[in-house]
Design the sequence.
């Protein structure tokens, strides 16, 4: 697995380091942490992070630190997430990109589905009867659809009522672009605490 | 507003609504009323008209949902048309409670509706950047060591079962099969004897032995009953403070609780 | 599938056309023919081919036709094959790329990969969306890995959703020590409480 040193292009110059990072990121299937890149490239992590930031800025059309002429804004960007860095298409070209990547099934969620999803998200784990009480309508069909699409899953049984409990999935978070449930926007502060009302 | 003798016929001018709360919110919005104000009696007629128009098109359960809300609205409207009286009898209290529950549910529904709109925005912006997610080119795939599953067929089947099984393993709750039926007169008897002995107990103390929520509700209704029949006096320092119940049979002492629900 | 025209960025300027091509190629997991790009971008094929050649030259460090300052050589290149165009790592950085690929690689499948494989095995032929719904997570990456490792293959298109169907391969059976799919242990006895796994 180890390669003879003489095969490795030297990465002393910034342009070469940048290019090496680009080459590696081009084959990755998931975000790559800067530390992992640093290890593979045998460079200090700080230097790699600086390079990643320089690259990200240059794709956005900013002049790079070397003072050379600014590049035009590219159709891709270098995105940093909690898990690491990876290439992504630039948001404003989404309409074109979607014509390629949509696998025949990216129906938008209906309003009823979104509202039901909202109740599950903030009250989880929650029974269907509870969701139904909040929305004032029967939600059986919508809950089945959300389950079939992997946005909610069963999560045990409510001790008191025997009803099946539901919670949201990772797919739900991804669909909304959230890292975790903690990032859910706070619900309107005037929401009364109506747990007890449901009992009456 | 013009009063015309003949009805002009019912016209659907609303967006699609899902359920009674949704319809009610839309009506309140159309009248530019605040949900938190007493807006309900003003939209009652509209609501009932829509419910009537729902007619045979909706299923029984759905129609019932609308009718429950319609009946509550009618009650509230009727109450507002009558000269305001002392709130004394149980019907008035029930009506106030019904209004509060309806308001609470409406506010709750509206909050989730707002969140759903936010979800819509998040959903559409989250998907604008598509990550590069590509397969390894063949020349690199060839470098990989031969793949191993690391499990045998039996273990593989167990993994499959674990994925398909709803998690966690269901346990059947039986509590709901034995939900006690609670009679208010019974609760009154229990509480009377305790209060007679202790003189004064907080509501929490009175309910200390309750195992189910419905028993607490029964005791609360019992306390109201005893208050009405002048068996007890109620003390409460301020709203939401601890409620104390004093044994005071046939006395004029009504206690220090701010029980005027007209506020 | 058709989008309102006002959502589409105009591609009249060459820089915009170039960026739109970059956005698409950065995300698509297969070489794209120039004609298909032209169709989706609603541009003449000749104009798109010119743009692709211009991009390829600019990544190689040549001054572009607009006469602006030459970009440095990038770590990626735009490669033209018989099937079309795609981004690839530049050859001279291959030692780093290979090291990176082998670095993160284990011979054994991860738990996530095994679970995904299990869903495909017992539900085949099955779409990615369906597998994703069962597992409640995005399985795109894992499905690509399983495909790259030769354990699953594409098996036509789902009539209802238009999604690509997948099935397991001979290699999968071999690795599990089975002669045919019929020998897969039944999982129904392991799921006594579930009447019909198709419902899940």
Sequence:
């Amino acid at each position: 697995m180890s390669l003879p040193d003489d095969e490795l292009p030297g990465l002393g110059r910034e342009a070469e380091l940048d290019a090496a990072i680009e080459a590696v990121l081009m084959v990755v299937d998931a975000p790559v942490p800067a530390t992992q890149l640093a290890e593979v490239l045998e460079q200090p992590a700080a230097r790699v992070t600086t390079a990643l930031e320089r690259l990200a800025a240059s794709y956005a059309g900013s002049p790079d630190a070397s003072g050379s002429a600014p590049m035009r804004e590219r159709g891709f960007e270098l995105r940093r997430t909690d898990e690491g860095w990876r290439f992504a298409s630039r948001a404003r070209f989404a309409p074109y990109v979607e014509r390629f990547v949509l696998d025949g099934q990216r129906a938008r969620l209906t309003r009823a589905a979104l509202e039901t999803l909202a109740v599950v998200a903030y009250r989880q784990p929650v029974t269907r009867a509870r969701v139904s009480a909040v929305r004032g309508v029967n939600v059986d069909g919508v809950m089945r659809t959300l389950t079939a699409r992997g946005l909610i899953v069963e999560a045990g049984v409510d001790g008191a009522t025997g009803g099946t409990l539901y919670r949201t999935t990772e797919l739900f978070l991804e669909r909304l672009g959230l890292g975790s449930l903690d990032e859910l926007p706070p619900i309107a502060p005037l929401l009364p605490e109506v747990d007890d009302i449901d009992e009456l | 507003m013009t009063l015309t003798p003949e009805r002009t016929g019912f016209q659907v001018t609303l967006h699609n609504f899902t359920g009674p709360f949704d319809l009610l919110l839309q009506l309140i919005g159309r009248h530019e009323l605040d949900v938190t104000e007493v807006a309900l009696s003003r939209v009652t007629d509209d609501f009932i008209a829509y419910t009537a128009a729902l007619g045979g098109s909706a299923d029984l359960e759905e129609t019932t949902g609308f009718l429950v809300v319609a009946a509550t609205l009618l009650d509230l409207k009727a109450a507002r048309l009558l000269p305001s009286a002392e709130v004394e009898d149980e019907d008035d209290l029930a009506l106030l409670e019904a209004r509060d529950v309806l308001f609470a549910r409406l506010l709750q529904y509206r909050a989730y509706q707002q969140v759903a709109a936010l979800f819509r925005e998040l959903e559409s912006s989250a998907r604008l950047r598509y990550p590069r997610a590509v397969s390894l080119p063949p020349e690199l795939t060839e470098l990989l060591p031969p793949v191993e599953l690391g499990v045998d067929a039996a273990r593989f089947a167990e993994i499959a079962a674990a994925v398909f099984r709803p998690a966690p393993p269901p346990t059947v709750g039986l509590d709901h099969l034995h939900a006690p039926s609670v009679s208010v007169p019974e609760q009154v008897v229990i509480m009377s004897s305790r209060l007679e002995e202790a003189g004064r107990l907080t509501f929490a103390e009175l309910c200390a032995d309750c195992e189910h929520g419905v028993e607490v509700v029964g005791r609360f209704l019992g306390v109201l009953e005893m208050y009405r029949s002048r068996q007890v006096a109620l003390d409460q320092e301020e709203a939401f403070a601890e409620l104390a119940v004093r044994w005071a049979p046939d006395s004029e002492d009504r206690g220090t609780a701010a029980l005027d629900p007209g506020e």
